[in-house]
Every structure is written in structure tokens, then in C-alpha cells.
Amino acid sequence: MAKKRVLITGAAGYVASRMLTTFRHCYDLTLLDYTVEPNPDRAHAGSGPVTGVQVADLLDPDRDKYSYHFEGVDAVVHLAYIRRRGEPIDQYESQRENVDMAYNVFRAAYDAGVERVVAASSNHAANWYEPTLLQPRKMESLDPYDLPLSHNFYGWSKATYEHLGFLFACGAFGRKMGMVLVRIGSPGELDVARSLGNETGLKRGLGSYLSQRDQIQLFTKAIETENIENEHGVPWHVVYGISNNTRAYWSLVNARQALGYCPEDDAESRFAADLPIGKEIGPGRAGS
């Protein structure tokens, strides 16, 4: 059987780096980014340019400059993003660019006949709930279909292109393109020692942890699950990207039901040897 053709944007970034080795074996990849150099903030010491990445400016409104990369592709994994610039109140412009880029990617995929787009959203799409309702235990768990409310422009941009994805999935433009928006939690190993003395922060890290193998599984299932139509016949889902964490406060119900996601790791077990015992980290979730 021929391998699926998968295009990945932001392919030189950290989130992509956790999946590339596996994906290179599983798929025929097209890798795009604005640079071939790895993210300097998250790169391993001595790591060089990412092999196979082609440079493309996906923020350019002239999609003819890069739309040919999308031809013949089975699925697009959109991980590219633009960093926040300036003070929080001044970040609208930079985060609006993320929405513009998401539109360009979704539109190029749609025009090329791509059947599935998997895009990295973020837990920030609904981060207002954390300090206001989740940490004081006024709400036990947040469902990805609760109204997305963010207290920063980064989260606003993520929530906006979750909705943008719905437009392409619901058939408004002539066909339904499958869309999975993954609200990524905390990918990477938790540094417990750095969190000591900050009980809320440590509990949050234990709740939002996403292991590498669970990330690979989730994105693989988002690419390969054949039928992702929801109860209304729309192939669109917003799912949280976390492991099977004991202290999780984001719901994985729809990720399990719609995609068959079955995370294998739990931060509570993964970092058990490093966790302080006693009053430094009490029972319960973040803030409790």
C-alpha cells in the first residue's frame, strides 16, 4: 500500500521535531517552514538544519508561490506559528498574522483537494477558565466544546482558527474538508525541580503533560481515522493534546471517541520519582 502523502508546516519547529523520525517512516512527507534551522529555544545542543525542509512564506497572500506544494497531498499538519511581539495589549497584529497564515494553509489545502487538515491549536484558546474557574475548583473539567475564552491574543488567534476550520469542514464552500484542531498542552519533559515551591504550577504541569509517544499517537490518529464526522455530519473536531494524566483538567472524551486516542502515559507515574511527598504538593488538581 502506498504511503499517505503528508505536508507539515512549521517542520523545523519543536512540536514537529517530536514526530518527524516516526513520520518519515510512515508517510511520504513534504516539509515546509520559513527556515531550515531548528528552533533555537528548543533545539538540542549541536542540532543542525532539519533535513528535507523547503522554505516557504505561508503568510504571503499570493498563494501561487507555495500552493503547488499542496497538490496531491492526502493530509496537511499545520504547526507553523508566528511568535508574540510586544506587550500583551500590543500583540493583536502579530497574532492576527497567525490567523491569516492559517487561512492561507486551509485555503491552499482546500483548493488542492486535500481531504484532512490537522492543525495545532493550544490550551490558550480557553485559558481564561484556568485561574478563574478550574484552579478554584468552580469547574472540574473543561470540555473542548465549551465556549473558547482566552485572556491573551495568542489564545484568541488559536480559538479563531478553530472556528475558521469549521467553515472549511461544514461544506459552506462546496465540499467538506476534514479538520482536527489539537489544543496542545505541555509537550516535553516536566522539570519538577524547577517547579518546587510553586504548587499550582507543578500541578498544572502534571495535568497538561503530553509525552512524545502520546503526541505521535494523537496526530497519527488525527491523520488516519477514516470517518471523523461529528453527530451533525461535520468532519470537524477540537481535541485536547495531553497524556492520560491523573491531574488532567481538560477533557479527552471526544479525542477518545472521535479518533480512538488511547494515551499511554501519565505524568503522575512518569515523574513519580521526582515528586515531593507531603505538604509541598497536596492532593487535587491545579490550585486545589
Description:
The chain has 288 residues and is an alpha/beta fold. It is built from ten helices and nine strands. The protein has helices at residues 14-17, 20-26, 92-111, 129-134, 153-169, 192-195, 199-208, 212-224, 253-259, 267-270, and strands at residues 5-9, 28-33, 53-55, 75-78, 116-122, 178-184, 186-187, 209-210, 236-241. Strands 3-2-1-4-5-6-9 form a seven-stranded parallel beta sheet, with helices on both faces. It has a two-stranded parallel sheet with strand order 7-8. Helix 3 links the parallel strand 4 and strand 5 (116-122). Helix 3 packs parallel to helix 5 (153-169). The longest helix is centred in the middle third of the chain and has 20 residues, at 92-111. The relative contact order is 0.13.
Distance between the termini: 51 Å
Walk across the major sheet and give the strand order.
3-2-1-4-5-6-9
Give the rounded overall mean pLDDT. Answer: 92
Radius of gyration: 19 Å
Proportion of strand residues: 5-15%
Q: State the low-pLDDT regions, or none.
A: 42-46
Instruction: Give the number of DSSP strands.
Output: 9
Quickly count the helices. 10
Please outline what is shown here:
The protein has 288 residues and is α/β, with parallel strands linked by helices. The chain has 10 helices and 9 strands.
Provide the fold topology:
Blueprint: E1 5-9, H1 14-17, H2 20-26, E2 28-33, E3 53-55, E4 75-78, H3 92-111, E5 116-122, H4 129-134, H5 153-169, E6 178-184, E7 186-187, H6 192-195, H7 199-208, E8 209-210, H8 212-224, E9 236-241, H9 253-259, H10 267-270
Parallel strand pairs: 1-2, 1-4, 2-3, 4-5, 5-6, 6-9, 7-8
Helix pairs in contact: 3-5
